C-alpha cells in the first residue's frame, strides 16, 4: 500500500483472502473428519501430508519463536542497561547481557511450557478468555465511542448500520469469550478426570494422530 488512501482497499483485500482460506480449510477438514477431527487438525491428515505441512510451517514457527524471544529479551536488555554506555557500545558487558537475556527468556519459556500440566489446555483457556476480549469487543466499543455523539443528532442509515454492526460485534465477542472459556474449563476438568492431566517434561506424541 503506497498510498494511505488505499488503506480500506488493502484491508478489505487482505481480510477477504484470509477469511476465504480459513473458511475453506475449516469446511474441508470438518467435512472429511467430522467430530473425529484431531487437535491440532493436522493430526487428521495422512502421513505424507503431515510431513509436507509441518515442513512448510517450520520456518514460520522458527521465525515466530525468534520474534517473541527477541521482543522479550530486548525489553529486559534495554531496562538493564538504560542510561549506561553499554546499551549501544560494542563491549563485553553489552554482549554478555544480551546473550544472558536471550538464554534466560528461552530457558524460562521452556520450563513454563514443560513443567505446567495441561499447558495446551491452559493456552486454550487464556486464548478464549483474553483473545476475543482484545480482538472483538474493543473494535466495536471504539467505533461507538468515536461515532455515537457525532451521528446521534442526525441519524443516517450509515450511522445506524454502524451502530448495529458494532453492537453485534461486541455481543458476538462476549458470547465467544464466555462459551470458549467455559469449554476450556470443562476440557481441563475432563482431562484431569481421565488421566490426571498431561504429564510434565513429557516427550509423548501430541499430534493426536496416533
From TrEMBL:
GO cellular component entries: membrane
Keyword Cell inner membrane: no
Main location: membrane
Membrane topology: Multi-pass membrane protein
InterPro entries, per database record: AA_transpt_TM
Pfam family, one: Aa_trans
Family under the similarity heading: Belongs to the amino acid/polyamine transporter 2 family.
Protein name stated in the entry: Amino acid transporter transmembrane domain-containing protein
Organism lineage: Eukaryota, Fungi, Dikarya, Ascomycota, Pezizomycotina
Amino acid at each position: 500500500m503506497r498510498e494511505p488512501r488505499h488503506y480500506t482497499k488493502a484491508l478489505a483485500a487482505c481480510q477477504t483472502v484470509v477469511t476465504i482460506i480459513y473458511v475453506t480449510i475449516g469446511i474441508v477438514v470438518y467435512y472429511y473428519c467430522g467430530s473425529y477431527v484431531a487437535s491440532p487438525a493436522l493430526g487428521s491428515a495422512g502421513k505424507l501430508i503431515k510431513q509436507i505441512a509441518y515442513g512448510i510451517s517450520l520456518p514460520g514457527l522458527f521465525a515466530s519463536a525468534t520474534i517473541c524471544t527477541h521482543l522479550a529479551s530486548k525489553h529486559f536488555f534495554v531496562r538493564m542497561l538504560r542510561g549506561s554506555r553499554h546499551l549501544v557500545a560494542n563491549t563485553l558487558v553489552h554482549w554478555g547481557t544480551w546473550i544472558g537475556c536471550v538464554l534466560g527468556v528461552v530457558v524460562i519459556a521452556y520450563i513454563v511450557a514443560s513443567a505446567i500440566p495441561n499447558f495446551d489446555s491452559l493456552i486454550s483457556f487464556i486464548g478464549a478468555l483474553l483473545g476475543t476480549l482484545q480482538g472483538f469487543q474493543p473494535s466495536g466499543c471504539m467505533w461507538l465511542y468515536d461515532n455515537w455523539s457525532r451521528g446521534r443528532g442526525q441519524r443516517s442509515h450509515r450511522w445506524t448500520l454502524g451502530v448495529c454492526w458494532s453492537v453485534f460485534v461486541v455481543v458476538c465477542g462476549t458470547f465467544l469469550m464466555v462459551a470458549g472459556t467455559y469449554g476450556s474449563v470443562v476440557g481441563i476438568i475432563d482431562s484431569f478426570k481421565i488421566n490426571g492431566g498431561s504429564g510434565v517434561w513429557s516427550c509423548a506424541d501430541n499430534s493426536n494422530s496416533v
